[in-house]
Write the structure tokens for this entry.
Amino acid sequence: MSDTALLRIGILAAGLLLIAAIFLFGRPKKKPQGRRVESAEPNSGERREPVLGEDGVTVADGRVEPGMGTEGEQAELGLGETDPGASDLGKRATQDFDKIVSLFVAARAGEQLRGEDIVVAAEKTGLVFGHMNVFHRLVEGHPERGPIFSMASIMKPGSFDMANIRAMETPAIAFFLTLPAPLTALDAWEKMLPTVQRMAELLDGVVLDDSRNALGRQRIAHIRDELRAYDRQHQAPPLTKTPRW
């Protein structure tokens, strides 16, 4: 096996581990549809922002909200299987990739994101439902180029069952920018970031980075620097001029 093949296998394994990590938040406790869980603590006048910890969604004081933890359940890798006749809209032209950038929109402590609300918010932000039964942002006028980025649920199997979308609840949704993308890495990021932020506004959720901490300006700047470097490394080499003798 060549070094290139080994490198691709290593990158693929890292990507799958990242996807698997989002499922480690566990399966939430069943609640009546459409109802929000009220906090048992008195209103202190200050909103605690959650971060996604290893064992669930944890608020600022380190307390894990009930129903958001795990019970040692091992996650399966990847998204669920789709029907044979499922849409190819948003399917990547090639499965070769070497970098994944991810963000999350998490529900606030003690709450869940409801499936029908996610669908409405996705439509408002220009996402389309397609390949793998998840949502994608496509290049306007050129859907055949594949997804700029995609959005899935963190709950197994990750896809959205439209036939039962009203019964769906999830503690968070995940956004994935897989590189190379149909745009430059930085341009793709500039499409994904405002979409994620708008989804958080529409769903009254919180934007988290790939470390499951609240996304701040410093982290955003760091990601932009990384993607600029990626674009420099992957830009087409300049044409070599033939010297005249």
Observations:
- The helical segments are 3-22, 115-124, 185-203, 217-234.
- The domain at 99-235 is CATH 3.30.1400.10 (Cell Division Protein Zipa; Chain: A,).
- Residues 180 and 234 are 9 Å apart (CA to CA).
- The beta strands are 51-53, 56-58, 99-106, 113-114, 128-129, 135-138, 147-153, 169-170, 172-179, 206-208.
